[in-house]
Amino acid sequence: MNKSGRDLKQLIFYFLALFTILSTAGCLLQQYFTYSDLSLSENKYLYNQVSTTEEPPPTINESQSPPEPKNSNTTSGHSSKLSNNLTEPLQPTPKIRPRIAIIIDDMGFQKQIGHKLLDLPLNLTFSFLPYAPYTQKLEIIAYEKGRDILLHLPMEPHDKNWNPGPSALYLTTSRIKLTKTIDDYLELVPHAIGANNHMGSRFTENRRAMRNVLHILQQRGMFFIDSFTTAKTVGMSEAITMGIPTARRNVFLDNVHTRKNICHQLEELIALAKKDGTAIGIGHPNPATLSALTQCGKQLLNEVELVSAHELIGKPIVTARHMAP
Q: Residue 11, SS3?
């Protein structure tokens, strides 16, 4: 074969070899880009699912299933399982409702109204005056109904025309007498798990006197609610300093004894709870308060959660040390 023939044959061989190489490379590149497009499609789909779960646009119908990835050539089940997991509906975060506690003070003097208040289907807290004539009978009923019971501590007011009741606590009362008096109170209100002050505008302004009383309550495993009968009270601040669970009254419900006014005060209490998260109201056993709680209490309390005093201040319910096992 002459030289030109050999050159032509060699050229054809090189051309076929180059064609084979280019064909192989083309197939590899096609597979590569096909895989890349699939991965990009899956990743874009997964990103859309996360975004939709976090912040769905208004046009999304959440009851519909999410769209399938456009590329259906995949044979791998891993990305499909991952997508299904990401598109599972998240559990909604429970909405925390504002909480209020309503304390009915001065329990023990009004027998019939006391019974009717205890019969209300409301989680009220009851504060009993130790020497009131019906305290012991009504206190047992409150205990059997599972209501929080407070000791309503009679304390010295500024105005001497106001009588806080027999065996009240005065600034002149000695530490030993304070201890004996409070223990005598607890014999009459044996299921009390906390205490709040009755009157006491003068007594609660005195840091030493309040520290003595709070120390006695602390030894008996009790918490303290400051009735806030004076703006200068140190009751709650001292309790905080001593590590005693505590809170204070925010709204008096029945300074004016009409149902309309008390319903308005309930609205104020609820508005305050919505603003701050919690609030405490104090009412008394009188016909207007009973009527207001009966007529407008349930409707207004749909907006908040009515809890007992110990729940509001976060104190675990335990048997107080003064109570018999």
A: helix
